[in-house]
Design brief:
Blueprint: H1 2-31, H2 38-50, E1 66-73, H3 79-87, E2 94-95, E3 98-108, H4 115-125, E4 128-134, H5 138-152, E5 156-163, E6 166-168, H6 170-181, E7 191-192, E8 195-196, H7 198-205, E9 213-215, E10 217-218, E11 246-247, E12 251-255, H8 256-266, H9 276-287, E13 293-294, E14 298-301, H10 304-313, E15 316-320, H11 329-344
Parallel strand pairs: 1-3, 1-5, 3-4, 9-13, 14-15
Antiparallel strand pairs: 2-3, 5-12, 6-15, 7-8, 9-12, 10-11
Helix pairs in contact: 3-11, 5-8, 5-9, 8-9, 10-11
Length: 355
């Protein structure tokens, strides 16, 4: 057994080394090319003309039913992050009688010279949605991803939106969904790891089934200092003193009815508010008479070492590690994932997952 674990670790590090070499070779090649990627330009123009994404897998949700979809927002250059996620927390797809799927969402970056690599990655992994919308336009990017899900993934029950710099406790999320599938009419005294799930059940049982949005609520003021270019909001853009209560962008869980309602409302505006989490989980829900509710369990932003320490002490659903150092990406994700499996993995049937 010890030899088997040692061999597995050695294999991971060999894969890690090969990935680094290939990644930096390709980035060097791409960034030193003065020629516009003609294949990328043709694919972009064709996709715009046909009102389609540049790359997508129409069979992603071909299963009869998908209980949980992890919608992971990424960028074309975040190759190591996507590889790390596939090998760790997105490697589970069918545990606790919960069938899940994952999808990476990328926006378009003019002249990035990574189209060929992304195209090959998508063919190999079948888990990439490459949109024609600007990668930096997060609100539009998210809305278009939701609209694509409506067409190609109508059989998804719950969606957990997150970003590729996060390590998600997918074991715990599968358990939460498994609970929501069991004795659905009983909302009282429903606990998981000593945390009440009553709010989730009540939202699910509510006749207004579109009011199911759970994350980590934030109450904040618009940034009025123009020196903070990224988050500066003028009074013309948003005149009120406070934003409506909204979900932190690190992650939020919603059902399909909620997602569809937010999507429909968002597409009514030609120029939606550019800060995605504020708009999609705050402004639009307020307009539709509901709000972001608190997701049981917590998340932790910090270093890898801090995250590993917190997992051993608290029930954590997500770790966000910023800023990230590319050369340690795979190892960081792997270490956190091994810790999560050590803490929660005893409840997983070994026959279901051999990752």
């Amino acid at each position: 057994m010890r030899r088997s674990r040692s061999n597995r670790r050695n294999l991971f590090f060999v894969i890690l080394l090969i990935t680094y070499i290939l990644f930096y070779w390709y980035i060097f090649k791409a960034t030193n090319s003065n020629k516009r990627d003609q294949a990328e330009e043709q694919a972009y123009l064709h996709a715009v003309r046909e009102s389609l994404p540049m790359i997508y897998n129409p069979k992603l949700c071909s299963s009869d039913k998908i209980d949980l979809l992890f919608l992971i927002f990424s960028s074309d250059s975040h190759i190591l992050e996507r590889h790390s996620i596939r090998e760790t927390w997105a490697s589970m797809s069918n545990v606790f009688n919960v069938h899940s799927q994952h999808l990476f969402v990328l926006g378009y970056q003019h002249g990035s010279n990574l189209y060929e690599y992304i195209s090959n990655e998508a063919k190999r992994e079948q888990d990439i949605l490459y949109l024609t919308v600007d990668d930096y336009g997060q609100t539009t990017k998210e809305l278009h991803a939701y609209r694509w899900l409506e067409k190609f993934c109508p059989n998804v029950t719950f969606t957990f939106k997150t970003e590729d710099n996060n390590v998600v406790n997918s074991i715990l999320l599968h358990k939460i969904i498994a609970e929501l599938k069991t004795n659905t009419s009983q909302s009282e005294n429903r606990y998981l790891y000593r945390s009440s799930l009553s709010s989730l059940f009540l939202a699910q049982l509510n006749s207004d089934s579109h009011k199911f949005l759970f994350g980590w609520p934030v109450v904040n003021k618009p940034e009025r200092d123009s020196r903070n270019i990224l988050y500066y909001v003028s009074y013309d853009e948003y005149p009120r003193e406070f934003y409506p209560r909204y979900c932190s962008s690190v992650g939020y869980l919603m059902n399909s009815a909620t997602r569809k309602l937010i999507t429909a409302e968002g597409f009514k505006e030609k120029k939606p508010f550019r800060i995605a989490d504020v708009y999609l989980t705050g402004i639009l829900p307020e307009r539709l008479n509901f709000t972001c509710d608190l997701l049981p369990f917590t998340y932790y932003p910090g270093t890898v070492e801090e995250c590993i320490s917190m997992i051993a002490r608290y029930t954590i659903i997500l770790c966000t590690i910023r800023p990230h150092v590319n050369q340690n990406t795979f190892l960081d994700y792997y270490r956190i994932w091994r810790t999560l499996k050590d803490v929660y993995g005893d409840t997983i049937d070994a026959k279901q997952n051999k990752s």
